[in-house]
Amino acid sequence: MKKITNICCIGAGYVGGPTMSVIAKQCPEIKVTVVDLSEARISAWNDENIDNIPVYEPGLSEVVAEARGRNLFFSTEVEKAIDEAEMIFISVNTPTKTYGAGKGMGADLKWIELCARQIARVSTTDKIIVEKSTLPVRTAEAIRDILANTGNGVNFQVLSNPEFLAEGTAVPDLLSPDRVLIGGDQTVEGKEAIQALVDIYAHWIPKDRILTTNVWSSELSKLVANAFLAQRISSINSISELCEKTEADINEVAKAIGTDSRIGSKFLKASVGFGGSCFQKDILNLVYISRSFGLQEVADYWERVIIMNDHQKKRFAHNIVKDLYNTVSGKKITFLGWAFKKDTNDTRESAAIYVADELLNEQAKIRVYDPKVKEHQIYEDLDYLNTRKPEENKEQVKIFEDPYRACENAHAISILTEWDEFKDYDWQRIYDNMLKPAKIFDGRNILDAEKLRSIGFKVTSIGVK
Ligand code: NAD
Ligand code: UGA
Best mutation site among 43, 91, 284 for ligand 1, i.e. most ligand atoms within 8 A of its Cβ? Predict the structure, then answer.
């Protein structure tokens, strides 16, 4: 198999953009073109001011600045890029279905199918198709079926190469991943295709970290990895509620169990609940697939992870109401943080959205400060819930660019994202300008509760009585 010199990636989102930027940086001899239907997204990736690229990730603008215009290109000319490429990554969104069979559970594969049909229609030379999007196990079969029936004599190999980067650490995760996973057919042609992709990653990743499997193991491993990670968070969050009843401290418990090397210390941080575009979607997918095979116990087992997470978000909001004398009607509650985690501008499924929704139902007035999330995004997130009219959201929720102003005259502050800068604020100044008793509900357990109490704050941390 000849070396790959021209790659196309369909989808310039949180995965396609950073992943292809790093491949282009590490493989200067390969031309990488990232295409998207969204003109706004592509023009943001091409913005002369590198700070305006649409995905905020520490270190990403430097990578893009190095490769863009050299061997990295962003374009809306999807068909041209497909036709010219020898290898095509599909990195489009695969959200939970909102209609029909599998509504609210299964993955909506409409964008994946559109890509496959477009590739089939446009291609005039043989290509390797790489599933980069997270897909239900056996999706490659459908893609292969569509591609095999083009009738124009072009040969396709379909690989699964799921992405394991976490937002906020995408660049270091891509530069030095724990592993890269590549699934392909175990035929001669399949193995050649796997090798072509291995050769690309081998530019910078040690060979023993590049795992190759059959396609189905690769597809399923991605869902399972996310399910296991999310399960740890729901497990620790379940114990946080017990801690609040027993005077055990969740941070101490997490440390005590995490030092057991069989358990490990990562992903044991109790929180207001996990967010992000993938954990919930991928577990729902696993549940849906299991149910569709009649595996009721397997499905129920994983569904509990989601149920626990929903409970954690709700109970956090209800504790705020309870602590504010059982009414927040007309009270100002300041949210520090809106993104689903620190170091990203992504808000998809952020716990903040659901906590806000609960409090708005109680007629609270919410003020939000987030260092990276734009005002319009916050309103879009709330409007998307469809709980109240956009005018009501505008009326009840105000967005601030200055955290100190956001906290002035507030009844309470709630920490929804673990942004580092919150730890360094002048908390005395914030206290002086708040209504008393000044309360803090730390949904991320990042603030020094003892220090804040010495100022006069009443502090509630997750999992601490
Ligand atoms: P995203 O919504 O940020 O980006 C997807 C992009 O694809 C959008 O810009 C959309 O306009 C574009 N698109 C959709 N259909 C298209 C088409 N037919 N032609 C051209 N462009 C098209 O999504 P994302 O966060 O990058 O996620 C992509 C996939 O990667 C998902 O399957 C997700 O589960 C998976 N994943 C995401 C992460 C993450 O951290 N966000 C990590 C690992 C895996
Ligand atoms: C997650 C996985 O970590 C990635 O490996 C995977 O590629 C990605 O999903 C995906 O498939 O999309 P991501 O969602 O970007 O990455 O970020 P995480 O660091 O996993 O955090 C997810 C959520 O869990 C955040 O809301 C975070 O605040 C929360 N979390 C994380 C906790 O509440 N406690 C923890 O101990 C860790």
Answer: 91
H or E element in which residue 183 lies: strand 180-183
CA 436 to CA 310: how far, in whole Å?
Answer: 31
Q: Which ligand is nearest to the CA of 268?
A: 2
Give per-residue pLDDT as tens, 192-203: 999 999 999 999
Residue 48 bears catalytic tag: no
What gap in Å lies between CA 418 and CA 338, rounded to an integer? 10
Burial of 191 (0-12, 13-18, 19+ CB in 10 A): middle
Q: How far is the CA of 20 from the centre of ligand 1 (A)?
A: 13
In this structure, which long-range contacts are made by residues 318-321, counting pairs with CB atoms below 8 Å and at least 24 apart in sequence?
318/358, 319/441, 319/460, 320/355, 320/359, 320/412, 320/414, 320/441, 321/359, 321/362
pLDDT digits (tens, 9 = 90+) for 41-76: 999 999 999 999 999 999 999 999 999 999 999 999
pTM metric for this prediction: 0.97
For the CA atoms of 375, 393, 313, 13, the dihedral, rounded to the nearest 10 degrees, stands at -40
Pocket test for ligand 2, best of 133, 165, 346 (most atoms within 8 A of CB): 165
For CA atoms 191, 197, 200, 206, the dihedral sign is negative
Unique residue bearing structure tokens 């040969």: 155
With tokens 């035929």, the residue in question is 187
Q: Are 356 and 321 in contact (CB under 8 A)?
A: no
How far apart (Å, rounded) are the C-alpha atoms in residues 219 and 293? 17
pLDDT in tens, 289-331: 999 999 999 999 999 999 999 999 999 999 999 999 999 999 9
Q: Is 167 a catalytic residue?
A: no
Nearest-5° Cα angle at 346, 342 to 352: 70
For helices 215-246 and 250-258, angle between their N-to-C axes, nearest 10 degrees: 140
Reply yes or no on whether the pLDDT at 221 is more than 90: yes
Per-residue tokens: 437: 């008793």
Q: How far apart are CA 213 and CA 191, in angstroms?
A: 10
Q: At what angle do helices 296-323 and 279-292 cross, to 10 degrees?
A: 150
